[in-house]
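ok posting inputs for the hypoxanthine job
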Amino acid sequence: MSQVANTLSLYEKAGEAADSIRERISDLPDIAVVLGSGLGILVDQLTDRVIIPYSTIPHFPIPSVEGHAGRFVVGRIGQTGTSVIMLQGRFHHYEGLDLETVTFPIRVLRRLDLRSLILTAATGAIHPDLGPGSLICISDHLNLIGANPLRGRNDERFGPRFPDMSRVYSQRYRSIAAEVANELGIVLHNGVYACLPGPSYETPAEIRMLRTLGADVVGMSTVPEAIVARHCGIEVAAFALATNFAAGVTESTISHEEGVEEGRKAGPALGRIIKGIVDRLVDAEGAPHTKRPRST
Ligand code: HPA
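and the output
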């Protein structure tokens, strides 16, 4: 990286990364989807795929977790052939990265003029009704990571110093998701996501605490990305897949490998919901309903 690049602001770095993506795709995507652990197979539903490894994009960190390939996959989806950008591989605080780095891809999406984001994540089920394989539409979150991605100097070009978080997860998207799931005959729960830093899973006492605090599922991602997306005016939907019962909910212990496997099994159902949402967000003529300014 050049010395000049090091003096760039976050806004400029995200802009350079966005330019590098823009050069490689024919038209700008309307909707972005971040794929959680084991959910990478959702890229299989894209046609006319363009693959852009993170390693080829300026200022991008490289993910270190197995099951996270580290690339953008741009392609078309659903009946309307909407252009979608999928992030196969995300960054986590537990990798030793600060939250500004973890959420860099979201800033890049903003610099690509994206206004619509679907986040997905593997989670542990705190609520006893959400067994492994359950799909949950996230209604709200508890940020217990011990940090905030917006900490530090605020750049007004992204958003305000003190952004409102009363409605992080779009009611409009949640209603569409419920309708789509209902039509497809897929059970979609609602729930509150508690975000912890990890990487160790929680203890049973911690899970009892989280349940008392009102959490239904627990994970180590999603929340920093949702906060940054809302800060810069992106509308957000987030889906959790319960890959295991959280510690102490049942007698069983927790393994990452089993979670990845559970993601493989439930991935197609989540993929169908996402495809249905994309079709609803884009009308028959292909015009996005995503409030994106057509030029910036
Ligand atoms: N805890 C935290 N994160 C997780 C879990 C869990 O039980 N399962 C999948 N991600």
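notes: The helical segments are 3-6, 10-22, 99-102, 104-111, 171-184, 204-212, 223-231, 256-281. The two ends are 27 Å apart (CA to CA).
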